[in-house]
Predict the 3D structure of the following.
Amino acid sequence: MKISTIPALLGLMILTACVPMASPEAVSFTPAPSVSEEASPAPAEDLTKLTLAMGYIPSVQFAPFYVAQERGYFRDAGLDVTFRHGFESDLLKLVGTDELQFLIGSGEEVILGRSQELPVKYVMRWYRHFPVTLFAKESAGIRSPADLEGKTVGIPGLFGASYVGWEAIVYASGLDPNKVTLESIGFTQATSVSQDHVDAALDYVVNGPVQLRLAGEKITELPVSDFIDLPSNGIITNDKMAEEHPEIVRALVAASLRGLQDTLADPDAAFEISLKYVPEAVGTQEDVGRAIFDASLDLWQASAEELGVSDPQAWTEAAAFMKEMGLIQTDVVVEELYTNEFLPK
């Protein structure tokens, strides 16, 4: 089967270098409005400059932050925000050493970081579900973890969210991993499944499964969140920033939540805004971009009361799972991993 969309979507997995920033100066700071509150723009000289780092390259997957930028919500909150992209694990280390102050990253990275004594903290929940899934052709007959016995499962490598997702399925389902062949295939999940190089693969729900569906392939999925819903993408800062400049953290969180609210309320408008920040998605790739955007929306949906809020039980379960499976070597203090204190009242 020829899958013309695969090369375009594989670009989502390409990581680029990041540019660290100097520590922000909290001068003439304008407090952030609540998520629903309007505010007059602050004068340019009163804005606090900061960099919001993101994993991967610019993508429609970051729509809420593009909306917050485009509609002036960051500026309303007294912030002059610049986006930077790079390897998530590298960016987390920069946040932990205070060379960067903010990162959009995943919860399991915070747990890994804290276990290595990086003082990083998750301050706003964005994704409501862990975004990794195991997928296969429908014809493979894989409808539960037990069906993986005797099969080959493709994975980029023994690292990152896909590997954590695999360990989570094993942990929560009781699957014997010795009865499954786990094969490192790099970021070729969709191609490897479509060409029967592997029986199934682990990937982000907005990547491999989207590619195969766009190519007309019928697939089955086992989302990791159906087994254990690990804390996923959100805003991460460090202890120093949280303690010394809580007003800046609160401002960034409030403005980002306004962007998320708008995105959920009017997805079409949010997608159009995203195209300004991801011009390569315009034209022949616009249908691909919209499919990725729509799949991402499903991960962000929440009630107004739940927007941004971290679930203590999810963090407790995630830390216990990662310690039991050997993903971290030391215990972490769960209360140090996250906080809800910077959410709008």
Summary: Confidence is low (pLDDT under 50) at residues 1-40. The beta strands are 48-55, 79-86, 102-105, 120-125, 132-137, 152-155, 181-184, 200-204, 219-223, 234-238.
